[in-house]
Design a protein that fits this description.
Length: 362
């Protein structure tokens, strides 16, 4: 009998230690101390059928065992309860002082920054920002700007022509030709400059006009460090009764001075653009060497930045104005070009490279 009790004791101790949850422990308690089937309870109950001597000997041992198992059960129960509380706390614990998860933040593309800056400067001089479609008709891109089909200047704008389905061709009409009731379809293209916006705007608005039209333009040409097939152009137009080249020079000088944050001198050189007369190239005194000559300005002291001129009478006519009543100037420059000058960027292709190392610097 004693051997049985010793075996029960070691088994009970093992099982109590192995219990992982309070439910496990409850099963162990019932197994040993349960009122009906408990092993120790069974032994104590069986004592009444034994001799008085046996009852005393085994009885005291069995009672001590019951107390011991009961104590171990309570001790283990306390441990388990403490443990569950611990893990619950661990799961729900929040460190309120911990910094939040940082979301990576992009930067504004340098061309967008330049465009915003340009728009701001011209806005203070009373210019509105106007936009037009990037897919243009042949009329607005060329004809309305005094560049007829046989004009040699069309060679200057190598063009991406768009294929059109036969059934859509009749919908795109030359506005002037529809008026003449001679319906002729218009070929579509990706605009080669932002100048079509001038005509579109003049058709719907009367002078005085002060607008800039920034936006993408496309040329079908090989890329190199200073040419890309897609670039951003800034078109400007000012039309009123007595606009002269002096007005133009003043506006340009003010713009470049504020854009580059240095004083610059402007130089106009005669040039040819079909939609202006007279036409000129705009140079500014080199912002790097202040006109003394350096590698950026190729030792000339001047930087070529834009094309411009006084609006051609034919363009006014195409827009519905009488060229005798109004005059004005127009200019166009590449946003990439002035951005490259401002930030000293050596290659135009970097702008569309998607290289984060490049973009992060702005
Ligand atoms: Zn220079």
């Amino acid at each position: 009998m004693n051997n049985d009790l010793i075996k029960i004791k070691s088994e009970a101790e093992g099982e109590i230690r192995a219990a992982k949850t309070t439910a496990d422990l409850e099963r162990v308690r019932i197994l040993y101390l349960g009122r009906e089937q408990g092993k120790i309870t069974g032994i104590l109950r069986a004592l009444k059928n034994t001799s008085a001597e046996e009852r005393v000997r085994v009885g005291s041992f069995a009672n001590a065992l019951r107390s011991e198992v009961d104590r171990l059960l309570q001790q283990r129960m306390a441990e388990l309860k403490k443990g569950t509380m611990g893990s619950a706390l661990k799961e729900e614990w929040i460190d309120v002082t911990r910094p939040g998860a940082r979301k990576p933040k992009g930067t504004i593309h340098p061309i967008t920054q330049v465009r915003n800056n340009v728009e701001k400067i011209f806005a203070t001089m009373g210019f509105s920002v106007v936009e037009g479609p990037e897919v243009e008709t042949e009329w607005y891109n060329f004809d309305a700007l005094n560049i007829p089909a046989d004009h040699p200047a069309r060679d200057m704008w190598d063009t991406f022509w768009l294929k059109q389905p036969e059934n859509q061709k009749s919908e795109i009409l030359n506005p002037k030709q529809t008026q003449n009731s001679k319906l002729k379809t218009q070929k579509l293209l990706l605009r080669t400059h932002t100048s079509p916006v001038q005509v579109r705007y003049m058709e719907k608005n009367n002078p005085p006009i002060r607008i800039i039209a920034p936006g993408r333009a496309y040329r079908y040409e090989a890329t190199d460090a200073s040419h890309d097939f897609q670039f951003n152009q800034l078109e400007g137009l000012m039309v009123d009764k007595k606009i002269t080249i002096a007005n133009f020079k003043a506006v340009m000088e003010e713009f470049f001075k504020r854009f580059f944050s240095v004083g610059t001198t402007i130089r106009l050189r005669p040039s040819f653009f079909p939609f202006v007369e007279p036409g000129f190239e705009i140079d500014i005194s080199c912002i790097v060497c202040a006109g003394h000559g350096c590698s950026v300005c190729k030792r000339t002291g001047w930087l070529e930045l834009a094309g411009a001129g006084m609006v051609h009478p034919n363009v006014f006519k195409h827009a519905g104005y009488n060229p005798k009543d109004v005059s004005g100037f127009a200019f166009g420059m590449g946003l990439e070009r002035i951005a490259m000058m401002k930030y000293k960027i050596p290659d135009i292709r970097l702008f569309n490279s998607g290289d984060v190392r490049f973009l992060k610097q702005f």
